[in-house]
Amino acid sequence: MFSSTAKLIIGVALGATTLSACHFSNGENGPAGAAPVVVPNSNGQATYGGGYKGTNASLLQAAPKGTHPTIDGGAGFKVPNYPTTTLPGWIQGHPPGPVTISYRNSPYGPILTTLSGKTIYVRLGDAYRISKCTGKCLAAFPPVLTNGAPQATGGLLPAYIGVLQTSQGGHEQIAYGQYPLYTYSGDTGPGQYHAEGKGGIWFVIGTDGVVRKAPLSATSPSTTAAPKG
């Protein structure tokens, strides 16, 4: 019969194996088995709490002139009637625990994705840690929520990760470089960027916190080099 200590060691080992298996390992995504990084100065809670040390507030961009960011609850364009969607493993539209974000090499350089590889977008016109996507917009662009301190695979900038409070059951939406993060219901799998440029306000975001509005040159080293943490 195993002692309680032996059971604990086995349980920890199995947990570590499961965590490693969740990370990408095909060379197109974040490094396999990268240790998650807890939000700095959050004391284990998903909150800025005055401890945010990022210096990238100037990266925030307003909705460009000529766009119509109030259409369909903030989508900025007429969106289809998407049914409410949820990510794998979520319960009634909410994550059961802390959520990890990752990155993927793409025509736009290394960009943020969910852990399963789905493209993450930001909305120009969102304010400092404030989402302006509501109603029909949320069905088209589900927010990337977390239940506990958000985490990140290696290669992302932990100082850029934080959260904002949402009205959705007390959970929190992950932000990167001050931008609230979303996925797009029109993307059905990894490597899709169907919302890029939509309404002139929806764009992918690089691991450096910079909004990507156009593909990079095919010869650019940024399309293959891993981001620096």
Description:
The structure is a single chain. This protein has helices spanning 4-22, 136-140, and strands at residues 100-106, 109-114, 121-123, 145-146, 151-152, 161-165, 172-176, 179-180, 202-205, 211-212. It is an alpha+beta fold and 229 residues long. The protein has one domain. The strands form 3 sheets. Strands 4, 6, 7 and 8 form a 4-stranded antiparallel β-sheet that branches. It has a 3-stranded mixed β-sheet with strand order 2-1-5, with no helix packed on it. Strands 3-9-10 form a 3-stranded antiparallel β-sheet, with no helix packed on it. Strand 9 (202-205) and strand 10 form a beta hairpin. The N and C termini lie far apart (45 Å). Residues 4-55 and 218-229 have low confidence and may be disordered.
Describe the structure using short key phrases.
4-stranded antiparallel beta sheet; 2 helices; 3-stranded mixed beta sheet; 229 residues; 17% strand; alpha+beta; disordered C terminus
In short:
With 229 residues, the chain is α+β, with helices and mostly antiparallel strands. The protein has helices spanning 4-22, 136-140; strands at residues 100-106, 109-114, 121-123, 145-146, 151-152, 161-165, 172-176, 179-180, 202-205, 211-212. The strands form three sheets. Strands 4, 6, 7 and 8 form a four-stranded antiparallel β-sheet that branches. The protein has a three-stranded mixed β-sheet with strand order 2-1-5, with no helix packed on it. A three-stranded antiparallel β-sheet has the order 3-9-10, with no helix packed on it.
